[in-house]
Each structure stands twice: as C-alpha cells, then as structure tokens.
Amino acid sequence: MRAFILAVTGLAIVAACGSFGTSTIDVQKPANVAAVAVTLPSPSMVAGQTGRADAAVKDASGATLPNAVVQWYSSRAAVLTVNDSGMINAISPGTATVSAVSEGVTGQASMTVVPQQPPAVATVSVVITPAAVVVGQTAHATAALSDASGNVLTNRSIAWQSSNTAVATVAGNGDIAALAPGAAVITASSEGKAGSASLTVTAPAPVPVAVISVSPTSSTVLVGATLQMSATTRDANNNILAGRAIAWTSSNTGIATVSSTGLVTGVAAGSTSIAASSEGQTASATITVSVPAPAPVASITVSPSAPSTQAGSTVQFSAVTRDAAGNILTGRAVTWSSSNSTIATIATSGLANALASGSSTITAASGTVSGTAVLTVTPAPVASITVSPATASLQVGRTTQLTTVVRDANGNVLIGRALTWSSSSNAIVSVSSSGLVTAVAPGDATITASATNPTGTVTGSALITATPVPAPGGAGPEPGAGDVMLWQDDFNKATLTELGAPYAKRGAMELIADGHSGSAARFPYTASSWDNLIEKSFDTSTDVYFRYYYRLSPGADPTCGGRGIAGFKWFMPWRYTADRYTMGVGDLQGGPAGSENTGLEFSTHDNTSTRMPNPFMQNINKTKTFKTTADGAWHEYTLHVVTGNGGYEQIWIDGLLVLDSSGYGYDHNPDGIGFIQFPGTMVSWFDGCDWTIDVDDLAIWHK
C-alpha cells in the first residue's frame, strides 16, 4: 500500500472569485523527514508468530513527525512479510531486513525467524521382537515416542542401551545380538525420557562330541615330575567344540596319576595309559614313567638348631637334605647320633631323649655329608611318681619287682632320676633300693618311692598284701565228688574218624596208640598244617576247670628260635558271647612286674580286660614251662578260670601251681565259658620248625 500527500510549500494560490476578483492564500510548507528509526517487537520470532514493528520519523531537528507517511518493506518475503501498518508475519526460518521508508528516507532492522519448537517427548515404549532368543540369534527393538497428548512423535533421536552387555548388545538402530545365556533389559532414551523391555537369552542345544583327541599321544615323565596333557573335542564336521566336560583317568595310578585338569604326575617307574573321555568318546596316550638319577647330598640342615629342654623330656629333630643348587632332596637316608649319650640319646627317627643336664651335639649324616645342632639339657623337677602295680598280692617268700614312672609338671616322663624306696613295715614286706619287694609275713604294707626336689619331696606308693604259703601239696585240682562234669574224653578210639566225631576240627590230626592211657590224638605242626585244633561246646560256667595231658616232641619251639616271639595260642576258652581267653606260649615279655617272661612260659590273658598284662606270665613258679617240658614225656596241664570283675586264672603243670592272677583284681567280662579250642594255632610259621603235640584224657568240670 502506498500513501500519497500533496505537499505545497511557499506557493501563492490565486483563486478567482465569481466576481472575477482575486485573493491570495498563504500555505505553510511542511518540515522535511531527516531520519527513520525502526523498532522490532524482538530480534527474533518463531515461524508462525506475528508482531508489530514501529517506525519513528524525525526531522532534522530531531522532532518526531507523527503524521509522516511510512511505507514498509521486507528484504525476504519467504522469511517474513510486513504490511502497511508494520505488522510482521514470521513465515519460515531465516534472516530478513525490515525497512521503513518515509519521504525517501529509510530505516532498517534485521529480524531472525527461528523454527517452531517440536512437541517434547513425554513417553517412550519399547517392544522387542522376539523377546526370547538363543545365543547367536538376533532380535530387534522398536521404540514408540509420544507427546503429552499421546500424539506419536517421529524423527526424534533415540539412544539404545543394554543392562548386561555380556548377555546381549544393542545397536543404534535397535538391532540386538544375543551373546550368552541370561537376561538383559534393553532401554531406549529420547529427550530425557526412557522406556525398556526385557530380553531372555538361552543357551543353544550343544552339538554332540563325535571325536576326542589327546596331546601328546605318548610321552615320558620322571617320578615326581608332572606333564600337562590336553584334549580337543570335535563335532561330526570336525569343528572344535569348546567348553566340553572332560574326565581324565589313569589305567594304573601306581605308575602315574592324572588330575581333573589333565595334569599327569609320575609315581613309579613303568607305563600307563592316560585316557580323556567326553560324552561317550574316549582317546588315550601312553605315558612312560622313569626314575631320575638321584642328586648327591651337598648339605644337611638340622632343626631346631639350638634347642633347650628339661631332662626327662624329648626333642624331635628333623633334617633337610639339599643338593648343590639348594634344592630339597626327599627320601634320603639320614643317620642320627649324639656326641654325649649320657646327656641325650637320639633314635633313628630323630627323636632325642634328654637324660641329664649338660649339652650334646646332635648330628644328622647322609653319606659323607652331615649337619649338626646343639641340644642343651636342663634338669626338670619331679612332680609325680606312679608306682606299678598299685596293688599286688604276694605269697610269703616270693618277690616281685615294682616299677615307677616319674613325671614333671607337664606330664613328661623323667628318666634316670634317683629314687628312695621304703616300706611302712619291713616285718611284713621289705623293699630293696631297686624296688624289688619281698613278702616276709602275712599282712599289708605300703611301699613308697620318693624323690627329693629343691622345693621338697615327691612320693608315690603301692599297697602290697603278703599272703600265707599254701599247705604243701603235690597235685593239681581233679574232679571230685559233687563236682559237675561238663565234658570228658579219654581218646581211646579205634579209628581216627571215631576219635574226631565229637569235635569240630581244623588242620591235621592223627590217632596214635602210645597215649597217656591207651590211644591219644597227635597234632603235627608243619609248613602245610600249623593251625591244628579241635573245638567243643558245653554248658556255660563262670567257674570252670580244664585238665588234659600233653606230650611235646623233644625241643619243640613254636617261636622257631625267637623268629616269631608271639609263638603259639596253646588253649582258648570262649565265653558264649564270643569273647575269649588266650592261653599262650611264646617270648612276649608280658607281666606282672617282676614276673616277665624267661622264654617259652605258659601265659594267660582275658581279651576283655583292659588292665591285665598281655600276656600274664608264670608268676608263682618258673621251673615247669613249655620249654622245660618239651622233653618227649607226658605232662599234666590244669587250668582254672573264674570270670567277672575280680576273676582270675590259675595254671598247674604236673600238679605244680605255676601261674595265679587271683591277687590282682583285674577287670573281666562276667559271662560264662561254654566253648574251647585246643591244642592251638601258630601265630606265624617259619620253615624248619616242625614239631608235634600229643593230647589225652581231657576233662572239663566245675565245682
């Protein structure tokens, strides 16, 4: 739109009047426009907005010309337009110049049109297709964006994220790769808003193992060394299968072992097969184990190097052998010695016994190489003395040896300590300086062993009961009037079958004519038969006597010259509960104290007793023993057994009482005896020791 105003300045207009007269009119000339200033509603507008621009028109003196006509222009109509009143319409993003023109004078201002702001994202929803996949498969996530009014928004930037990238990863376009079994949450984010969906990844069904191979297929390893083996599993297409369970085995673990990881360890010289198995497939390798040449001992270190201990105690030394490179050598023989055996002795195991105060050099030697340590021994005070047996019965005129155990405050046994022995009544029981007691007259006496410490005297004691000498007699017990005969056999049989009929038996048995009274049974002990006995059951009794006659081949010796000290199980009475007594013959020392075995004595032991010496030896008389009666002549053996606590055993040989445990009060099972085995069995057999036992006239009875 354009505005036009006629400006007439300084002209004289002559008007003709009807009377043809004339008059003159003076018209004032308007002021000239000197400047136009454009003011925009704002430097920028959003496309689609409108706003009015103002133009201030002024003359040369700066006075505002309010009635000046102004024309408006836009330099870029595509960006914005402006009408005649200065109203601006923002059309599209860009920059345009707004001009106001008045009387040829122009004012301008620059206007920037910015794009309209899109609607903000209000919600994000995610859909994964499919929501469950197998490792190695793919899925796709789609995100739907909406504004606050629920309108779908497009062309917005979306960021994708996986909560567990070890299970699944997601690309910028929503493509998902399944990597491992598990679960992952896939999240889409846009303009501060986020939505998510869960994806489940499962493991694919494994391809079965078709072939397994091991490496190496053969090898050699030293004893004590190791070799790592490996196994490869493949499918039917020869593809390697990783992560398959493999079981390792050795065909001979005495030669080499193999761990669950295939680590082979040499054990002993030889060959073995090492096998690897997986899903029913197996492959193996041959492993040869060889013995390495032993390295020479270069040094020996003894530990502890400078110990100190009290007399009566022990110190365990150890020796470490090394080669020239300092490597520890195992299995090397070491010889131990003490420079002063009166101060300390040392066993082959390296256990040193401290005997007396002083010092001794302990040496460990292997070949020509040795190592040493200095052991210092200090005296230990005596804290307690235990006398054994604590109680005993002793027939007048008989002796028994008391023994002691001396201990320090820590319970360590002290050896070599001087003790003083005394009796509460020498008229009843006397005692020597070595603890040998002698029954003098019937009665009780307390025998005391004492040791003197710097702080006082420590004592231990035993109660000895002296019993009267029994009236003279020349025969052992025999069945009498009123006694109950449980079994009796004179062995006078015509045949061996008839002889063995009443008994269960094992081993060899013969019928001989020259018995004690008529025929008898012979039991030969040879390399082919050294477990010979007969068995017989009878009514049980808790107080029972056994008597039979025996004849030994001259020089018979079941220990075979001491090669088997356990010797021979001579006679075995059994309780009906299957707990037995063992009457033996051998070289075991046994007891009680002072009555130790002199060699091939008759002995007894109740296998149910925890306190009775095992074995209990002849403690009354040692003139009649197995050894002294191995003379080819007939001898009488009589045994008396009483069961229960306070029970005891007595043995007579040819009517002479040789063993009596009645004065000791040992614990015994109370059950009665109802079964026997005899003449017995060798504990061990040694070639060249053949001998025989003949038995006759067996009787079993109770009072």
Task: Explain what the structure shows.
The protein is mainly beta and 703 residues long. The strands form 17 sheets. Strands 51, 53, 54, 56, 61, 62, 63 and 65 form an 8-stranded antiparallel sheet that branches. A hairpin with a 4-residue loop joins strand 27 (256-258) and strand 28 (263-266). The longest helix has 5 residues, at 496-500. The model is unreliable at 1-28 (pLDDT under 50).
Topology of this structure?
Elements: E1 12-16, E2 22-26, E3 33-39, E4 44-46, E5 50-52, E6 54-59, E7 71-74, E8 80-82, E9 87-90, E10 94-102, E11 105-114, E12 123-129, E13 132-134, E14 138-146, E15 152-153, E16 159-162, E17 168-170, E18 175-178, E19 182-190, E20 193-202, E21 211-215, E22 218-222, E23 226-228, E24 230-234, E25 240-241, E26 247-250, E27 256-258, E28 263-266, E29 270-278, E30 281-290, E31 299-303, E32 308-310, E33 314-316, E34 318-322, E35 328-329, E36 335-338, E37 344-346, E38 351-354, E39 358-366, E40 369-378, E41 384-388, E42 391-395, E43 399-401, E44 403-407, E45 413-414, E46 420-423, E47 429-431, E48 436-439, E49 443-453, E50 456-467, E51 484-489, H1 496-500, E52 504-506, E53 510-512, E54 520-525, E55 531-541, E56 543-552, E57 568-575, E58 583-586, E59 601-604, E60 616-617, E61 634-642, E62 648-653, E63 656-660, E64 673-682, E65 691-702
Parallel strand pairs: 4-11, 13-20, 22-30, 32-40, 42-50
Antiparallel strand pairs: 1-2, 3-6, 5-9, 7-10, 8-9, 10-11, 12-14, 14-15, 14-18, 16-19, 17-18, 19-20, 21-24, 23-28, 24-25, 26-29, 27-28, 29-30, 31-34, 33-38, 34-35, 36-39, 37-38, 39-40, 41-44, 43-48, 44-45, 46-49, 47-48, 49-50, 51-65, 52-55, 53-54, 54-65, 55-64, 56-61, 56-65, 57-58, 57-64, 58-59, ...
